[in-house]
UniProtKB/TrEMBL annotation:
The protein, known as: BnaC07g32170D protein
Coiled coil location: none
Statement: the UniProt record of this protein carries the keyword Nucleus: yes
Source species of the chain: Brassica napus
Superkingdom: Eukaryota
Gene3D superfamilies (UniProt xref): Tetratricopeptide repeat domain (1.25.40.10)
Length: 364
């Protein structure tokens, strides 16, 4: 990390001039409200107009660059440009843009930029970067430095704001970490991540992934016991019926298939059990984690491509154009580095006390 990133003075996000009170909305302003485009003729407004009204993302990208260079709503311009780049299959460019330009953004924007970078890392298959950042975010939660020392933060999804608690963020990050570690075939650490997530809050999909981790290690009896603990769907559950129903049905199917094959072949050799599981279940059995979502959205669910429920999200939420994403090397402001002892610490949770510094220490 460059020194200028670490010791950059704190600054607030630039914004367009506020409209005087008491002035009625014009037809032009109504148009901007409908298309969710800001009012005015600044570089950022022109870029948003090309992106959302003219629907020309390729032409919008250089306009976002112009807005950043002009210092016009830099926070929003950089985030929007990175998202558009990702949509245009230019994820690697988006990563480099965020890394080189985030120093111009406010401290308030850094967490959102990290979230976008996490998603970009996942898109590009940069699992090591993704894992390192997830561990660092968990380390900050353990130290009480996440959310600027507050218990909750305000997130936005599909134009709506909602509150996310430290506990919810921890379970989401642990689920993401477990999934990424499974892609690296690191089932021992993935098991630990899922167990810590489940110690904070129950989750059927995480329970199924934990069962897969145990199976991959040849611990069939433990895997069976874990999968038996997956509960049936609850109508008013936090993720909706569909997600938990798929998790429950998948767990029962895995138990049935595994039991039948073990009975047919016999034997308790763990090496043979792992080979058996590898042949029976592929990576498609693993639920992919998704960004945190508002729990009150009631949109009709879209069918999942792999037939399994997502790990960290209600499946009855449209996942297209999600602005709340996850992943990237963390940003440190001078406030965090030089005055870390003065930051307000969150009230420690017992579960976070169990998270060792060695397992969650940030990347060197």
């Amino acid at each position: 990390m460059m020194m200028k990133d670490v010791f950059r003075p704190t600054k607030s996000a630039p914004s367009s001039p506020a409209k005087p009170l008491g002035i009625s909305r014009t037809r032009s302003e109504s148009f901007h409200a409908i298309h969710k485009v800001p009012v005015g003729d600044s570089p950022y407004v022109r870029a948003k107009n090309v992106q959302l009204v003219e629907k020309d993302p390729e032409r919008a990208i250089p306009l976002f660059w112009s807005a950043i260079n002009a210092g016009d709503r830099v926070d929003s311009a950089l985030k929007d440009m990175a998202i558009v780049m990702k949509q245009q299959d230019r994820a690697e460019e988006a990563i480099e843009a965020i890394k080189s330009l985030r120093v111009r953004c406010s401290d308030q924007a850094q967490e959102s930029l990290d979230n976008i970078l996490l998603d970009l890392y996942k898109r590009c298959g940069r699992l090591d970067d993704q894992i390192a950042l997830l561990k660092h975010k968990l380390f900050l939660i353990q130290k009480g430095l996440a959310f600027n020392g507050k218990r909750t933060k305000t997130a936005r999804s599909q134009g709506k704001k909602f509150q996310v608690s430290v506990e919810q963020e921890a379970t989401r990050l642990l689920g993401n970490l477990g999934w990424a570690l499974m892609q690296r075939d690191n089932f021992v650490e993935a098991e630990d991540a899922y167990r810590r997530a489940l110690s904070i809050a129950p989750d059927n999909n995480k329970m199924c992934n934990l069962g897969i981790c145990l199976m991959r290690q040849g611990r069939i009896d433990e895997a069976k016991e874990t999968l038996r603990r997956v509960k049936p769907a609850v109508v008013d559950g936090p993720r909706g019926v569909d997600s938990h129903l798929k998790a429950y049905e998948r767990a029962q199917q895995m138990l049935s298939d595994l039991g039948s094959e073990m009975m047919r072949r016999g034997g308790d050799d763990r090496v043979e059990q792992r080979k058996l599981f590898d042949a029976m279940f592929g990576s498609s059995s693993i639920w992919q984690p998704q960004p945190c979502r508002e729990q009150s959205v009631k949109a009709k669910p879209k069918p999942s491509n792999d037939g399994y429920g997502d790990e960290n999200v209600k499946t009855n939420v449209n996942v297209v154009n999600n602005p709340l994403r996850v992943d990237a090397k963390p940003f440190f402001s001078s406030k965090l580095i030089s005055n870390s002892e003065k930051l307000k610490r969150t009230r420690s949770l017992k579960v976070f006390q169990d998270i060792t510094l060695s397992s969650l220490s940030p990347r060197a």
